[in-house]
Amino acid sequence: xxxxxxxxxxxxxxxxxxxxxxxxxxxxxxxxxxxxxxxxxxxxxxxxxxxxxxxxxxxxxxxxxxxxxxxxxxxxxxxxxxxxxxxxxxxxxxxxxxxxxxxxxxxxxxxxxxxxxxxxxxxxxxx
Length: 127
Prior knowledge:
Layout: E1 12-16, E2 27-31, E3 34-40, E4 46-50, E5 64-68, E6 80-87, E7 94-96, E8 113-114, E9 116-119, E10 122-126
Antiparallel strand pairs: 1-10, 2-3, 3-4, 4-8, 5-6, 6-7, 9-10
């Protein structure tokens, strides 16, 4: 059944070869008018995100990628290196690179993640 309204296709941009994205290192690319960071996680999955922190607009992709310091008892500091987290360079907000969700704050901020596909030895980001 034709409704007269066609679904709008989101633009897809070629951003490099799979080898251009090493594990744990943020690579900045241009996808149309969006500055996007692309990172390969330890499991080989590629994640792409808008270079804009949802907390205060910082260039989030300039932050540190690593583990996290989860809440712990007074006098004790625990480090969880199994998590893959992006830490905002301005205020230290931590975001899970798998889900884009904020790690420990009660707010509802989350990274804007974009779909990534690999076809014919080329990485594509859809924005």
